[in-house]
Specification:
This protein has 75 residues and is of the alpha+beta class. Helices cover 32% and strands 25% of the residues. The chain has three helices and four strands; from the N terminus they run βαββαβα.
Length: 75
C-alpha cells in the first residue's frame, strides 16, 4: 500500500482522476472520515478541496507516482 498527502484545486481534479483511472488497482482519496474512489470525478469533487487529503493506492505504479509528486504537501 502506498499513501500520498496531497492538495488539489478544482482545475486539477480532472487530470488527477484521469491519471488514477489509468491504474489497474484500487485508489482511494480521503479527507477526515470521507473516503471515495479516486477514479470517480463526482466523488472527488464532493470532497472539501480546501484541505489536505490522503490518497491510498493498493499497489505501486511509477508513472502515477511521478504524477502525484506535483500535488504532494509536507505535513
Amino acid at each position: 500500500m502506498v499513501q500520498y498527502k496531497i492538495k488539489l484545486n478544482v482545475n486539477q481534479v480532472r487530470d488527477f482522476v484521469n491519471a488514477a483511472s489509468k491504474c489497474d488497482f484500487d485508489i482511494d482519496i480521503a479527507y477526515n472520515s470521507y473516503i471515495v474512489d479516486a477514479k470517480s470525478i463526482v466523488g472527488v469533487l464532493g470532497l472539501d478541496l480546501r484541505h489536505v487529503m490522503v490518497v491510498t493506492c493498493s499497489d505501486f505504479d511509477s508513472e502515477f507516482d511521478s504524477f502525484m509528486k506535483q500535488f504532494a504537501v509536507a505535513c
